[in-house]
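Sequence in, structure out.
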Amino acid sequence: MTGPPVVREDGMAQDDGGPAQIRRLLLHGSAGAVSRCRDFTARALADWGWTPAGDPLTRERADDVLLMVSEVVTNACLHGGGPEEFVLRHADGLLRVEVSDRNPERPHRMAPRSPALPGGHGLMVLDRLASDWGSADRGPGVPGKVVWLEVSRPSPPPWRRPPADRP
């Protein structure tokens, strides 16, 4: 990465100068945060070549990313006092999504319940769709946490295993 991104008047920041690409969206509270973050992510995925997807797996993966963004931002709205910053990091086909809020309490799974009941399924969605996810402190002297998830882009077709090396 080549240094801190420049923040524009619209609260967005971008650094596309190095091997990793970073985009930031500054948020203040939860009003419209979910749709803003989904739209922000959709634009980034298009810029990074994830959409429009030429194959069904990439299209499905981009839809999965938007669903996970909705889940983590909604959780920040409901349980974290509202998201403060939304960050996308992209390098070598790996996307990392980060949502910061002021609540230091880490996400935790609810007791198992019927999938037919509304609510309480966000972390289950992350477990199933993300390559990895977790949370961390925001940093020394900064209250709150960062919830993050990582997703890899499917490899392009053909989806064949390379032949095994034979002695």
